[in-house]
Design a protein that fits this description.
Layout: H1 7-22, H2 46-76, H3 83-106, H4 115-132, H5 134-158, H6 164-186, H7 194-211
Helix pairs in contact: 1-2, 2-3, 2-4, 2-5, 3-6, 4-5, 5-6
The structure holds fe (ii) ion (2 copies).
One fe (ii) ion binds next to helix 3 and helix 6.
Organism: Billgrantia endophytica
Binding site for Fe cation 2: 93, 145, 177, 180
Subcellular location: Cell membrane
C-alpha cells in the first residue's frame, strides 16, 4: 500500500536517522561485515592498538558526516531521477557507520564526542549545497567521497601491519566510496575547482586532528 509521504512523515524519518547516526551502537548494517569470521589480528602493541583506534574513530566520524551530508542533501535538493540512487549510497554509508562502530568496539575504543558537532556542520553544508542546485549538491558529494577515498588509502597504509580486521573494513569502504563519487558525477555533479577541494581538505584536516584523540 503506497501513500504519499507527508511533511510530518519526512520529519520523523529524519529524526530517526539522526538518532541512529549519533546514538552509540544504534546503526544497523544491511550487508554483512566485510571482515570474514576467520580473519584474526596479529599481535599488536598497546601503541599500535591505540593508533588503530584513533584511525577507526576518524573513519567513524567520517561516516557520521556522510550520513549528515546525504540527509542534508535529501532535505533540500530536487534530484529528479537520481534520488533513489543517492538513497542507495546513503544506505551503504549506514553499513560503513555500523562496521566502523563494531571495529571501534573490538578495539576497546569509543566514538568521538565531537560527532554531534560534525553532524550538524555536514547537514548544514549538504542542505545549503542542495538549495544552490543539484549540480553543486552532487558535485559536493563527489568531492567529499574523493576526499574520504584519499583518507582511506592513507589509513590503509598507516594501519599497524597486524591489524587485519580494520584493513578488511577499510578496503570495502574504499571500493564503495569510489563508486559513490562516480555515481554522483554521472548523475550530473559539477567537478569542483582545485581551490574548493583545497578548502575541503583543510576542513577535513581539522576533523581528523581533533577526532583522532577525542
Ligand atoms: Fe562511507
Ligand atoms: Fe560514500
Amino acid at each position: 500500500m503506497n501513500r504519499k509521504l507527508t511533511r510530518a512523515d519526512t520529519m520523523i524519518h529524519q529524526f530517526d536517522t539522526v538518532l541512529r547516526t549519533l546514538l552509540p551502537h544504534a546503526a544497523r548494517s544491511s550487508r554483512p561485515s566485510p571482515v570474514a569470521p576467520d580473519v584474526q589480528d596479529d599481535e599488536m602493541t598497546v601503541e599500535e592498538r591505540r593508533h588503530s583506534e584513533g584511525l577507526m574513530r576518524i573513519n567513524h566520524t567520517g561516516e557520521v558526516c556522510a550520513q549528515a551530508l546525504y540527509q542534508g542533501q535529501g532535505f533540500t535538493a530536487k534530484l529528479p531521477r537520481v534520488r533513489e540512487q543517492m538513497e542507495q549510497s546513503a544506505q551503504e554509508e549506514i553499513d560503513h557507520l555500523a562496521w566502523c562502530d563494531e571495529r571501534l568496539q573490538e578495539l576497546g575504543g569509543h566514538a568521538s564526542v565531537l560527532n554531534p558537532l560534525f553532524y550538524a556542520a555536514s547537514f548544514g553544508l549538504g542542505a545549503v549545497a542542495g538549495v544552490v542546485g543539484d549540480r553543486v549538491s552532487l558535485g559536493f558529494v563527489a568531492a567529499t567521497e574523493e576526499q574520504v577515498g584519499k583518507h582511506l588509502n592513507e589509513h590503509l597504509e598507516t594501519l599497524p601491519p597486524g591489524d587485519h580486521r580494520s584493513r578488511a573494513v577499510l578496503r570495502q569502504m574504499a571500493i564503495d566510496e569510489a563508486h559513490h563519487a562516480q555515481l554522483a558525477l554521472e548523475a550530473g555533479g559539477a567537478r569542483f575547482p582545485a581551490p574548493v577541494k583545497f578548502g575541503m581538505s583543510l576542513m577535513s584536516k581539522v576533523m581528523t586532528k581533533s577526532v583522532y584523540r577525542i
